[in-house]
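Technical annex B. To support the medicinal chemistry partners, we prepared a structural model of the target in complex with NAP, based solely on the information shown next.
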Amino acid sequence: MKRVILAGATDGIGKALAELHASKGYWVAILGRDPAKLDALLGGLSSRFPAATLRGVVCDFRDNSRLGPAFDEAVRAIGHCDQFVYVAGIMHATDGVTSVPEDDAEMFQVNTVAAVQLLGIAGNYFRLAGKGQLVGISSIAGDRGRKLNPAYCASKAGLTTYLEGLRNRLHPFGVQVVTVKPGFVLTKMIAGRSGVFWAASPEEAAATIDRRVDKGHEVFYVYRRWGILGLILRHIPRFVFKRVGPP
Ligand SMILES: NC(=O)c1ccc[n+]([C@@H]2O[C@H](COP(=O)([O-])OP(=O)(O)OC[C@H]3O[C@@H](n4cnc5c(N)ncnc54)[C@H](OP(=O)(O)O)[C@@H]3O)[C@@H](O)[C@H]2O)c1
């Protein structure tokens, strides 16, 4: 049975992935920052899906010193790992004109710095094993720098580029590296936001991610139509994008 580590799965897309994996009877280790939320999730999933093996490891991705030990604990808890998914992310609200340095730094820490470290650690593990699936949840927001939240866009662009490099590095060792670029997904991250369209539920997003990773797809959007928008966005000339680009 497949053994999966989910980094940041106590809510949203990650929680939906945890449910999906539990429903298939997988061995799942969830890294989460809030012990009470982690316990509640594990308790609920264990009673609904008794065939699954579920473990929790407390880890706040703002604490770099916890990342390596947390990965090791997760592997020990489920015996070994076939798939590692970095799902965690934060997007602080902005007023669209003022930069808030602490918020920007925290987004980089959770969305990029911790992601790069954990994906790197998992990549080393899979390289030695000669197999494995590494998945990073990036965003269409990383395709272009937008005025509403430059730091969030840049944190995801950094993650996307890192995953591409890791894919090129680990390909000869039989390790699959996947970049997922969701558009809108109806989670707490975008709660109350206006102008939301083509939105997926967390469950739809999780099912798409799971299906396409298992089909061997390396880079994909959720839904597919966001890929067309991403292509258009990337080709709008800079001087046009600066004046009339989306927020
Ligand atoms: N929702 C969208 O429209 C959308 C679009 C494109 C990309 N994405 C990306 O998809 C991923 C999942 O987002 P989501 O929409 O599911 O958001 P979410 O519902 O807010 O879930 C984010 C997850 O990250 C965890 N997390 C945040 N900070 C953490 C920290 N310091 N340490 C450990 N865990 C932490 C959260 O833990 P808690 O449960 O403790 O809060 C939660 O489990 C993110 O990378 C996001 O950038 C989302």
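Notes passed to the chemistry partners:
Residues 101-129 form the longest helix (29 residues).
The pocket of NAP is lined by residues 8-14, 32-34, 37, 60-62, 87-90, 110, 137, 139, 182, 184-185, 187-190 (CB under 6 Å).
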